[in-house]
Amino acid sequence: MPAEARRHVTDVRVMRALANPVRYRIFGHLMGAGPQTASECAQVVGATASNCSYHLRELARYGLIERVAEAPGDARERPWRTTGTGFSFHPSETDRDDPATRLVSGRLVHLGIDDDAALAHASADAHDDLPRPWRDAEALNSYGILVSAEELVALVARVDAVVRPFIALTREDAPPDACAVHVTFQAFRRPGGA
After folding, report:
1. Contact 15/9 with Cβ under 8 angstroms?
2. Per-residue pLDDT for 4 more than 90?
3. H helices within the chain, ranges in order?
4. Which of 35, 94, 102, 184 is the most buried (most CB within 10 A)?
5. What is the pTM of this model?
């Protein structure tokens, strides 16, 4: 199994670079699908290949992705990959109270929520066209739980430990019929809740 390379990004300039909707979708696609060319990204994110090339270069400029150097072909056909197998984006303690940093950090959170929702809507629209085993395997579960902050931290860690062996960028033992699956786990205190 390839080694995990989880990165914690605190640089607000990097977060600002990712806070573009097209870049965010491209980055998410590379995280889920692995190395892709600009043309392959364009088909998924709904942009032109030249527009994707620009955004890929910007993501590379900030160290979030890189060219796959060992891939055959010229530069236009060489795929891009992420520089880590997992990322978290949070401002540093010194930047946390800066209004511009809070705005960028919030923008990334909202882009993630919007992207997850868009993928879920597209999946719901395509559900009936899936083979029966995949239709039966899909799950869109919600739970209303009652926990302390400490218990929530422990729960999130346990879910992460269960999911981590299946991450596409590090899994080498996937069965031949494995397909890319989007898994979202959101856990937050209900707004207005006690």
Report:
1. yes
2. no
3. 12-18, 21-33, 38-45, 49-61, 99-126, 132-137, 149-163
4. 35
5. 0.85
